[in-house]
TrEMBL record:
Belongs to the FliD family. Residues 7-103 form the Flagellar hook-associated protein 2 N-terminal domain. Pfam families: Flagellin_IN (PF07196), FliD_C (PF07195), FliD_N (PF02465). Homopentamer. GO terms for cellular component: bacterial-type flagellum filament cap; bacterial-type flagellum hook; extracellular region. It is found in: Secreted; Bacterial flagellum. This is Flagellar hook-associated protein 2. One of its GO terms (biological process) is bacterial-type flagellum-dependent cell motility. Keywords: Bacterial flagellum, Cell projection, Cilium, Coiled coil, Flagellum, Secreted. It comes from Rheinheimera pacifica. The lineage of its organism: Bacteria, Pseudomonadati, Pseudomonadota, Gammaproteobacteria, Chromatiales. InterPro entries: Flagellin_hook_IN_motif, FliD, FliD_C, FliD_N. Required for morphogenesis and for the elongation of the flagellar filament by facilitating polymerization of the flagellin monomers at the tip of growing filament. Forms a capping structure, which prevents flagellin subunits (transported through the central channel of the flagellum) from leaking out without polymerization at the distal end.
Length: 431
C-alpha cells in the first residue's frame, strides 16, 4: 500500500531551525556590519590624521619653510646657486678667485722591489697623525698592501691611498678626503733594520705634490676687496638662505658672476596647497562617511580643527591673508589676498603659519592626541569598537551552538514522527 504521508526529517529540521534563528542572525549580522564599518572608518581617520601630523611637523622643522625662492647664476659653469625659503630677494656679484682643493701627494716606487719589512710609515693630516707598522704587513708585501693598511687603519683621520701607474713607474698617491688649507698632509718614514727602507725614504724625498691643500676664495661685489674663504666649494653662510656651489676659478679681468634671488609665488602656493589638501582630506573623510558624520568624536575633531583657524595671529586673521573656508568647511587660498600679504611681509606671513603660535602649531596640538598609535583618543575608540565587535562574534558563536542543539532536537522529533507514521501505515495496510 502506498504511503499517504512522507517526510524528510533532515529537511524539516533545517527549515524549522532556520525559522527559529533568522531573527537573531539578522540582528547579529547587522550589528557586526555596523561595528566593522565604524571601526574601519575610525582607522582610516586615524591614518589620515597621522599623515597630516607628519606633514605639519615637516613644515615646522627648523630647516624647512613654506616660503620658496628662485635663484639664478649668470654663469652656471662658474658657480651654481640654490635658495631656500629663508633667502631674501636681491642681486649679488661674486668673483671666484680660487677653488678649494684637497691635498694630494704622489711617490714613485719600483714595482718589482720588495717593501721594507720593518720601520713605520707616518702620516699627519692637519695635526692628526697615525703610523703604519711595516712589520704588520703580510709576508712579501706589495705596495697595494701598504695602501690597504693606510686606508683601513683604525686611527686614520681622513686619508685615502691608491695606486697609479705610468709606464714602468708605480705611484702611491695619498690624498686628504676633505678639502681646505687646514687639511695638509705631511708624510714621513722611520727606518728599521731592513735596508729596503731606503727605497721608501728616497720615494718620500722625491714626492710630487699633485694638488695643493687650499681654501676657496671668493670676492663679494664687483668693486670691492671683501673676500670670503672656505674649506669647501659649497658656500652656505655667505648669503643667508643661499647655497653657492663653486665650479671653477675665474681669471683676472673676468667679470663677477651675478646671482639673482627672487620670490617664487607659485612654489609657495604649491607648498601651502599640500597643507590645505591634507586638512581638506580629513574634512572629506569625516563629512563623506556616514559612520564618521554621525560619530561624536569625529565631529569633535572637525570642530577643533576649524577652531585652530579662528581669531587673530600677530594682529591679523588668516582670512585677511587669503586662507578661507567654503560652505562645506573646505579650506582654500584666495590668490589676491594671499599674494598681497606675501608681497607686503613674507616673514610675517610665514610666522602666522609656522611659528610656535601659528596655525600649524595649533593644528599640531589638536591633531596629536587623536593620532597617537598608543594611548590616542582614536586608538581608544578603536579598542571600544573592537571590543563590541568581539562581543558580537562571541554571541554569534553561542547562537550557532544553541541552534545546533535546536536542529538536533527537531531532527529527533521529526525522525520519531517518521517512525510513527511508518508504523501507522503498516498497521493500516493489514486491513
Amino acid at each position: 500500500m502506498a504511503s499517504y504521508l512522507s517526510i524528510d526529517p533532515q529537511t524539516l529540521a533545517r527549515q524549522y531551525t532556520q525559522i527559529d534563528r533568522a531573527g537573531k542572525d539578522n540582528l547579529l549580522s547587522a550589528k557586526s556590519k555596523q561595528f566593522t564599518a565604524q571601526l574601519n572608518a575610525i582607522k582610516k581617520l586615524q591614518t589620515s590624521m597621522g599623515s597630516f601630523l607628519t606633514q605639519l611637523k615637516d613644515f615646522r622643522k627648523a630647516d624647512s619653510s613654506l616660503l620658496a625662492n628662485t635663484a639664478s647664476s649668470s654663469s652656471e659653469s662658474t658657480l651654481a646657486v640654490k635658495a631656500s625659503g629663508k633667502a631674501v630677494a636681491g642681486s649679488y656679484d661674486i668673483f671666484v678667485q680660487q677653488l678649494a682643493q684637497n691635498h694630494q701627494l704622489a711617490m714613485s716606487f719600483d714595482p718589482t722591489a720588495a717593501l721594507a719589512t720593518d720601520g713605520e710609515f707616518n702620516i699627519d693630516l692637519g695635526g692628526s697623525s697615525f703610523s703604519v707598522d711595516m712589520a704588520g704587513l703580510p709576508a712579501n708585501a706589495k705596495l697595494a698592501d701598504l695602501a690597504k693598511a693606510i686606508n683601513s687603519h683604525a686611527d686614520n683621520p681622513g686619508v685615502s691611498a691608491t695606486l697609479m701607474r705610468s709606464g714602468n713607474e708605480t705611484f702611491l698617491v695619498i690624498s686628504s678626503d676633505e678639502s681646505g688649507a687646514a687639511n695638509e698632509l705631511t708624510l714621513g718614514f722611520t727606518a728599521g733594520l731592513d735596508a729596503a727602507g731606503a727605497d721608501i725614504t728616497a720615494a718620500l724625498a722625491a714626492k710630487q705634490e699633485l694638488k695643493k691643500a687650499q681654501d676657496a676664495i671668493v670676492r663679494l661685489g664687483s668693486d670691492t676687496a671683501i673676500s670670503v674663504t672656505s674649506a669647501s666649494n659649497s658656500l652656505t653662510d655667505v648669503i643667508e638662505g643661499v647655497t653657492i656651489d663653486l665650479v671653477k676659478a675665474q681669471a683676472a679681468g673676468d667679470s663677477p658672476v651675478n646671482i639673482k634671488i627672487g620670490q617664487d609665488q607659485q612654489a609657495i602656493k604649491d607648498n601651502l596647497q599640500k597643507f590645505i589638501d591634507g586638512y581638506n582630506g580629513i574634512v572629506s573623510s569625516i563629512t563623506g562617511d556616514t559612520n564618521l558624520k554621525n560619530d561624536s568624536m569625529a565631529r569633535s575633531v572637525q570642530s577643533q580643527l576649524r577652531a585652530a583657524f579662528q581669531g587673530e595671529i600677530g594682529g591679523k586673521t588668516l582670512y585677511s591673508v587669503g586662507l578661507e573656508f567654503d560652505r562645506n568647511g573646505k579650506l582654500s587660498i584666495n590668490s589676491d589676498r594671499f599674494e598681497k600679504a606675501l608681497a607686503d611681509d613674507p616673514a610675517a606671513l610665514e610666522a602666522m603659519l609656522t611659528s610656535d603660535t601659528g596655525v600649524l602649531a595649533k593644528l599640531e596640538k589638536t591633531v596629536e592626541p587623536y593620532s597617537k598609535s598608543y594611548g590616542g583618543l582614536l586608538g581608544g575608540k578603536q579598542k571600544t569598537l573592537q571590543a563590541s565587535l568581539d562581543l558580537i562574534t562571541e554571541k554569534q558563536k553561542r547562537h550557532d551552538y544553541s541552534m545546533e542543539l535546536t536542529f538536533k532536537r527537531y531532527l529527533s522529533q521529526f525522525t520519531q514522527m517518521q517512525i510513527t507514521i511508518a508504523q501507522l501505515e503498516s498497521s493500516m495496510g493489514q486491513f
